[in-house]
Amino acid sequence: MTGGTTAARERAAQPQAPRPQQARRWSTGRGELWVAGGVLALAGALASGTATMEVPDGVAAPGPQFFPWLVVGLLAVVGVALGAQVLLQARRAHADGGAPATMSNDLLEDLGAIDGTSELRIVSPADAAPAPGEDPEDDGARLDVRTIALTVAALAGFALALTWLGWILSAAALFWALARLFGSGRPLLDVGVAVIVASVIQLAFGAGLGLPLPAGILEGVVPWTS
Amino acid sequence: MDQLTHLLEGFSVALTPSNLLFLVIGAVLGTAVGVLPGLGSAMAVALLLPVTFSLDPTGAFIMFASIYFGGLFGDSTAGILLNTPGNSSAIATTFEGHRMAKDGRAAKALGTSAIGAFLGGTIACVLVVFFSPAIVRLATVMGPAEYFALTVFAFVAIAAVVADSIVRGLVSLGLGFAVGMVGIDAMSGAERFTGGTPVLFDGISIIVVTVGLLAIGEVLHVAGRIRTAGGNGPFLSPKGSPLLNRREWRQALPAFLRGTAFGVPFGAIPVGGSEVPTFLAYGTEKRLARRRGDADFGTRGAIQGVAAPEAAGNATAGSAMGALLALGLPTSATAAMMIAAFQQYGMQPGPLLFERSGDLVWPLLASLFLGLGILLIINLPFAALWARLLVIPRHYLYAGIAVVAMLGVYAISSRVLDLWMALAIGVVGVIMRHFSLPIAPVLIAAILGPMAETQLRRALAVSEGDPTALVASPFTIVLYLLLAATVAVSVVQHLRHARAERATKARVPA
To answer: Which Pfam families does this chain map to (chain A) (predicted)?
Structure first.
């Protein structure tokens, strides 16, 4: 490692939340009102679904509508509370949940007697610090929406193509497209890797464990696909 | 000592070649997903669920359990060598572990963490075996009201602990309930939120939900930042012996035991897995080091700071297995996936499981011990080899995750519709991550929600609608009091931190 990268890492190592990787903080901003709105919309949809539910005759006292009403109530209350929270403290930054089971940072800091100097400096994700002078409100824009949209499109394309093209071709295409989207610079090598990955899965799960993977247009061409 | 004979019989089943094979596969897979950042044992189990339909349940569960433990073995490797913990359960280990590595004691840190994981897990499993009859006896006196109280406790505890604000935790919980309600109501036969389409009569498969939220959500989340993110830091290669000498054992052993003591009780209560006890163990070691005047802690790296959190992490997995088998209560995302696995095989974990499926439970418990031994063997000398997994280019890693996720979803019932649902849920997952809404409560609520509803309706049906029946027994009263205390602590803490944050902001204009 050169001196330059070390210095960059040192700079990046400013006190922040003890998260594995991706510990960038998002300023949730007013965009989160959409989330609150979505929660309320879900509550509304569930409420109408519950109200119009066809309940079979002679069902015992707390029927099938009882629990849904509780959930509708919960969603309505937390939706309003979330909206109020966003409006009252719009600039409050939240640690971005990189790990699936995110925990409250505050709680962990208390439990671990973490004082924000020694520990937090040592666990420093590579991309922690926003560049100086960057507007913290601007965080949302840094999410690369284009790549996300293209990834979704690739996955959707896979779902469309699977039964027609068969597993090997469509899975290889998905693998290749995602590797490319995620910054691979060697598309030809990727073709080879993609075909190998798709074929190994076909062999292991299709031929080995007997999972019915569609053969598609390769039906009959390669004997071990079916 | 009835359980010892059962356990010995269990060993004889677990030691058959096919079960040993599953054990080793699980240990290798678990360690691998533990080492790789962004993958976890919950996702691994969810992806394997549809594939294991055709397997014998005993073998499948042996594999799942060793994936669970393997994940906790592997997660500290990347943390120690690269300063990027493979999972949130290894953050506490990373603090002192990476310091030791920078000090040239990487092998020692890896050895300490493997031994700690082994000791913590083994002690917890011994306790589970000894106390399982008592837990089962306790569980048999529990009625619907008690079970409902237990599930409410699980919901509120996870919502309060997992998120930065309780509101966010509750939002996630509500989403999970909504997902869990879709389908035909088992008690009355009424159609709920299916929109009249028969494909939704069976509800939304929990595998679709998990793979969508965890795997596809993670892939999309990474897609949103992979072009701007930097690479890994310098890779410290471990040299020397991973084994501890006598003096180091004297330092580490008490820390191993203290860590285990934190881990065991926390594994049995639903507070979102191993983060809380690992941080508690780390904090305790830090305070003790300060009192001792230990200059290594926080500078060169102290062996206790690795030993205690690592033992705590695996101890939670041991008692989580106990809580899962004896009470049917999932205390972590991986345990929740195992409940889904039991349901797939038509079994309901809980006190009756020991009676009805003793031929599954005891081999499973025996295999936990075997699995821990195998994991120690494949981790203690070869930790540096596992770390080589981190060399896989990230674009291949995430492309591979996406392909395997699609495979897992399609394998559920060979329906393309499931792929679309998983994709939609993945988009929801990435939005949730963006707004720091926690994922774990969604899974817990989607799995435990229907169970809670059934118990609540049964309790109310028995009492003829009288809600006081829910708090009539001492057990329920104690649980609700504990719950109130948890919420109070959490609220106080959030308020205190909000105030501290405001104070910092006022001092340093950001």
So the answer is: TctB
Distance CA A165, CA A168 (A): 8
Task: Kindly list the residues from chain B whose CB atom is less than 8 angstroms away from the CB atom of residue A178.
Answer: 219, 395, 398-399, 402-403
Please say whether the beta carbons of B349 and B337 come within 8 A. Answer: no
Q: How many CA atoms lie within 13 A of B124 on its CB side?
A: 34
For residue A26, the SS3 value is strand
Q: Which amino acid is at A143?
A: L
Restricting to B residues 407-436, those with a Cβ less than 8 Å away from any Cβ of A are 407, 410-411, 414, 416, 419-420, 423, 426-427, 430-436
Q: What are the angstrom distances between the C-alpha of A121 and each of A117, B87, B102?
A: 6, 18, 14
3-class DSSP state of B415: coil
- Name the B residues in 39-78 with CB < 8 Å from any A CB: 40, 42-43, 51, 54
* CA distance to A42, B424, B478, per residue, from B321 (Å): 35, 32, 23
Chain A hits for B228, Cβ within 8 Å? 127, 142, 144
Residues of A within 8 A of B221 (CB-CB) are: 22, 98
For tokens 């599930």, name the residue. B151
Instruction: Provide the strand spans (E) within A15-85.
Output: 25-27
B313-334 residue pLDDT tens: 999 999 999 888 888 888 888 8
CB atoms < 10 A from the CB of A195, how many?
17
Place of tokens 């006081």: B468
| Chosen from A70, A182, A186, A197 to mutate, greatest number of chain B CBs within 10 A | A182
Chain A: closest CA distance from residue B118 (Å): 22
CA B280, CA B308: separation in Å to the nearest integer? 9
CB contact A205 to B (< 8 Å): yes
Rounded Cα distance, B14 and B22, in Å: 10
pLDDT of residue A135: 38
Mean per-residue pLDDT for B2-16? 88
Provide, rounded to the nearest whole percent, the portion of chain B with pLDDT above 70.
Answer: 95
What is the predicted ipTM? Answer: 0.85
* Strand-pair partners of A94: A26
Chain B neighbors of A174, CB-CB under 8 A:
399, 402-403, 406
Position B311 confidence tier, pLDDT thresholds 50, 70, 90: very high
B242 Cβ under 8 Å from any chain A Cβ: no
Beta bridge partners of B184: B191
**Distance (Å, whole) CA B210 – CA B409:** 10
**CA distance to A16, A132, B215, B501, B510, per residue, from B505 (Å):** 14, 17, 36, 6, 7
Tell me chain A's radius of gyration from C-alpha atoms.
25
Rounded to whole angstroms, the Cα distance separating B450 from B446 reads: 7
Q: In the predicted model, what is the mean pLDDT of chain B?
A: 86
Nearest CA-CA distance, residue B5 and chain A, Å? 35
**What would the mean pLDDT of A89-118 be, rounded to a whole number?**
53
Residues in chain B with CB shorter than 8 Å from the CB of A119 are 95
Domain boundaries, chain A: 3-135, 145-225
Tell me the one-letter amino acid at A165. L
Over residues A205-213, mean pLDDT: 80
Structure tokens belonging to residue B222: 């990474």
Q: Cα separations (Å) of A85 from A36, A91, B506?
A: 10, 10, 20
Cβ–Cβ < 8 Å for B132, B3: yes
